[in-house]
Fold:
Amino acid sequence: MLAGVNRVIVFVGDVERCASFYRDMFELEVVPSKHVSSEWMELDAGGCRLAFHQAYGPDGTITSPTGSPRNPHKIVFYAEDVTAMRDRLVRKGAQMDEIETFGDITLCDGQDPEGHRFQISDG
Structure:
């Protein structure tokens, strides 16, 4: 296997409300992190993390519910070396964005043939 699924990101209008729902309903634990905020929270879902990310649109922050096909989830694959993985995926024909760094996390988004977003990340 080239890479394992690290997390699934759900873009939402209310991070705390949605994360609390899954935390309480499925008895998941919040993953302690310096990144936990009103815009980001991760839950330990066993072999994968369930992450909630504040949704944004052309006019800024989205605060209404986002449950629709226009705001899909994002599957995140772990890559120890994001640059090498991106290069490998591009060689195989994947459409990949530029590499970005947020604090100590390096990541890169891509899209599948139907336009669904996915990400490779080292954190």
Remarks:
- Helices lie at 15-26, 82-91.
- The chain has two helices and eleven strands.
- The first helix runs from residue 15 to 26.
- The two ends are 18 Å apart (CA to CA).
